[in-house]
Write a structure and sequence with these properties.
heterodimer; A: about 260 residues; alpha/beta; Rossmann fold; seven-stranded mixed beta sheet; two-stranded antiparallel sheet; globular; B: about 70 residues; alpha+beta; Alpha-Beta Plaits; two-stranded antiparallel ribbon; 2 helices; 4 strands; about 15% helix; about 20% strand
């Protein structure tokens, strides 16, 4: 009997809250009930959901404007049930700046990958942070260019094999991986910078807390907030999703330490 | 007792839910789904409804009932 009850209430319940319908955890309202195009074990799906849960928790779905990047998440507007616009490669903080200044009552966030934010859009992100724009940046760091075929990104770890570094990234030839958050933390305009990961359930809970805090600071008008999320790319790391999660735990998070880098 | 429901046609076979279930109640199905992968299935047993599997599912394919 209990089974039938829960089945009949499933469709109407957006959830992530305990209520009488008996559904405890399910798809948030801000996320369309469609299949995404991401590979198996990709972190983008989890991060999309965390953002939607945070937005639903604040009840700001009608006020949110997201700026999608160029990269694997380029068609994020097909998955998010709120306003999303697209920007040229790396120019998301510039577009978000314009939107926020024209419509200060809206909640504006950018969603960027590491090729978008750390390579082609480096100057945009630095100047947006330096101006202290009241926007939120979700920075998904998986260490490769996923959409174009797994080439080396500025955040690729030393020794990591990619499509353009077949023998592993050499520090002599390609230089060092770039730590964007530490770089932005020295700017007085940056009010909140935290690095989280999605490789396990515990880390997903922490990631959601960080994303919520970043949105809360924007709602309170505190200024520029950025959350870096270490994410898996099993396809271009050449691993299974479970091995990729272990790689974040054992390798990636030792170079990119998790935790709050700066908090106002 | 809590239970989970896995949408088998959404499952892409990453099996992150299997390694994150503290009680080991999720296993790989013997049958293929619409995508041609063997989806994760709930094997029954004493589910506490902790939601770890749903938290790590990248495809939002798991619903937790209590």
């Amino acid at each position: 009997m209990k089974k039938k009850n829960s089945k009949s209430t499933k469709k109407e319940t957006p959830a992530l809250r305990v209520d009488s319908s008996s559904v405890v955890l399910a798809r948030p309202e801000s996320l369309y009930d469609v299949e995404n195009h991401y590979c198996a074990g990709c972190g983008h799906g989890i991060i999309h959901r965390l953002i939607c849960e945070a937005i639903d928790d604040f009840g700001i779905r009608e006020r949110v404007i997201a700026v999608a990047p160029v990269g694997c998440a380029v068609i994020a507007y097909d998955y998010w049930n709120f306003d999303v616009t697209e920007a040229a490669h790396g120019r998301t903080p510039a577009v978000a700046t314009g939107i926020k200044r024209v419509r200060p009552d809206n909640i504006v966030f950018t969603y960027q990958g590491d090729g978008d934010l750390a390579a082609i859009g480096t100057s945009e992100i630095i100047h947006a942070a330096n101006r202290g724009e009241n926007i939120t940046v979700i920075f998904v760091n998986n260490g490769v260019y996923g959409m174009t075929g797994g080439q080396m990104a500025p955040t690729t770890l030393a020794g990591q094999r990619t499509a353009t570094t077949l023998n592993g990234r050499s520090l002599k030839r390609e230089g060092y991986p770039i730590k964007i958050l530490e770089m932005l933390a020295v700017l007085p305009g940056t009010k909140y910078a935290e690095r989280v990961s999605v490789h396990s359930a515990q880390e997903v809970v922490r990631a959601k807390r960080a994303i919520k805090k970043a949105f809360r600071l924007q709602i309170e008008g505190k200024g520029f907030s950025i959350v870096e999320v270490l994410s898996m790319c099993p396809t271009y790391w050449g691993m299974t999703p479970i091995q990729s999660a272990d790689r974040i735990k054992n390798e990636v998070s030792t170079f990119y330490p998790l935790g709050v880098i700066k908090s106002c | 007792m809590a239970k989970i429901k896995i949408n088998k046609d959404k499952c892409k076979g990453c099996y992150l839910c299997i390694v994150n279930c503290p009680n080991g109640l999720i296993k790989v199905s013997g049958e293929l789904n619409i995508r041609g992968v063997k989806p994760a299935v709930f094997s029954g047993g004493k589910c506490t409804g902790c939601g770890m599997c749903a938290l790590v599912c990248p495809d939002c394919g798991i619903v937790i009932y209590k």
